[in-house]
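Review form for a predicted model. The reviewer records the input and the model, then writes brief findings.
Reviewer: anonymous (R2)
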Amino acid sequence: MMAEDIQHNQKANFNGLTKSAKSGASKKLTIKNFKDRPELTDSYTEDTWIKLRDAVSAIQNSTSIKYNLEELYQAVENLCSYKVSPVLYKQLRQVCEDHIQAQIHQFREYPSSSLDSLSFLKRMNRCWQDHCSQTIMIRSIFLFLDRTYILQNSLLPSIWDTGLELFRTHIVSDGAVQSRTVEGILEQIERERNGETVDRSLLRSLLGMLSDLQVYKDSFEQRFLTETNRLYAAEGQRLMQERDVPEYLHHVSRRLEEENDRVISYLDQSTQKPLIATVEKQLLGEHMNAILQKGLWMLLDENRVCELTLLYELLSKVKGGLMTLLQAWRDYIKSFGGEIVSSPEKDKELVQELLDFKDKMDHVTQRCFQRNDNFINAMKEAFENFINKRPNKPAELIAKYVDSKLRAGNKEATEEELERILDKIMIIFRFIHGKDVFEAFYKKDLAKRLLVGKSASVDAEKSMLSKLKHECGAAFTSKLEGMFKDMELSKDIMIQFKQVCVRRYILLNTQMYELYKMVKLQEVCKLFYLGKHSGRKLQWQPTLGHAVLKTEFKEGKKELQVSLFQTLVLLMFNESDEYSVEEIRTATGIEDGELKRTLQSLACGKARVLNKMPRGKDVEDADRFHFNSDFTHKLFRIKINQIQMKETVEEQVSTTERVFQDRQYQIDAALVRIMKMRKTLSHNLLVSELYNQLKFPVKPADLKKRIESLIDRDYMERDKENPNQYHYVA
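Model under review:
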């Protein structure tokens, strides 16, 4: 119990005893009726003092007081009224000092065995408690003296402060007593830190004593912090070797909670800041790099949200902790993401793995790192860094991933889910430097989807274009948007062409699918188109054509919706029921790879209108095919999907080369634009300007080649005296 608490409780006990005396003193501090005042004589003064001294001694010895407390209070007031306050104060101080001096012997003579340290602390606490209660009782009797003479003399301490001063001077300031008291307290705290149960009320009372006596910092706190530093330095070294990082983090958190609880329970509030700083320094600051090197990547790999949150909270308390964590976090993302991007064997799963990794890192920043902007920005920088370590390929794969999601037949997601996927893809897309590579492959795939009607949703297509337009500007999507306009225009042209066919070639309808009639119709279409659009060249894409065949099976009549190559193969079975692969190849002229995919779709898919001998999934040169008249299907019109040929290496290289060619044109245009505006520039400034204007990565060597090309073509020239200086040639 603190001294202030004791003082408060004791005051409450004596309120009733001194009520009338205090009431008189608080009004005028003098006796109104001077006739009732006893005559001042030496004998009266002596007798009164003896009475007061006996009362003080009784209080100090815990015996009963012979006199009425109100009478004693009145006696003090009488003596003060007779102007003997200085003598009375001096005598009271001497009596109290004599008593306290006598108390020191019990502590000096106390056994020094470590087993007696707790009993020593209890005796010290009992002495302190007694002293506080005695001082409060004495003060209640000498209250008039305390509120008049002592209050009017600022150099004199109050009776309570005098009691504290005497106890500090004669008891606590004794070297041996103070040392033993502090060592005993430290021993109890160490026991508690080791898991033992201690008397917290005893520690609270003794540490309150040191604080009240104003020796807490000098006598206790410094030694306490030194011992704390020693303890946790050793503990940190030991546990970092013995425990894994999650277990160590929970231990540190528990230790910090324990130390905060000690401050609340018995330590002085002023100790909290240096104490917690000491624990954090020894358990976290000294091992920060080791904790991150040993455990951060493991925590992130295993998605240990709880421990990552704890790690962030703990390191945020240490100077430089979050910056160190930030760097380790950035390094992890670069390393993990770099492995995803740099592995060609993982190209099929690359985009999905990037999306999953981004989701995982977003979850960590939101749940564990409190959405700290520094960590979010570091994550973006790290993604941008590793994703461009492998130029062009990620952009190409992202375009193909979008194609797989927007292509018809993708039943993995609803429209809402598809929209969310596209939003996530756009986040990854922002990190790519070579967006022109993405544009080239996206454009090629979009054209295929639109031409063969394989787009899953026009709304989804337009939503993706809108996102690209918002991200890269209208110039980036102008050609892509033009494709949709071309498709609308194509529909109108085909409607007009069909009308022409109805008017001029109506007789073709009866035998329209015979080969020579199909060729004839193709010529008619060519003439029709060129007649409407002079100066254009019409290029046919036979792989993208389709037709509807009317067929008779034993089950009945069916309509087959098939590709042009499937049409050519099936029409042969009007002449004969069976053909070899070589016979079909010779008759149709279809390229070998395309022919095998066509036969595979007709004989090995879900709708098997041809039978293959021998059976099997793959088509070989020795196989034979015959018409399956027993074919059955619940639908009248059946769509037989052509097996799509994967993008060839040649197509991929061709697309990439077109991108590089376009880049050269853009570099040339940027060079001319800059030189025309600046007229004269040094090589370094010109290159710097180019990097600011170009929106794709380019090597300095490539820029040098383009500069040389423009010099050869007389768009610019070198300075005759300074070869690193260029001039624009008008």
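Findings: The chain has 31 helices and nine strands.
Further findings: The two ends are 95 Å apart (CA to CA).
Recommendation: see findings above.
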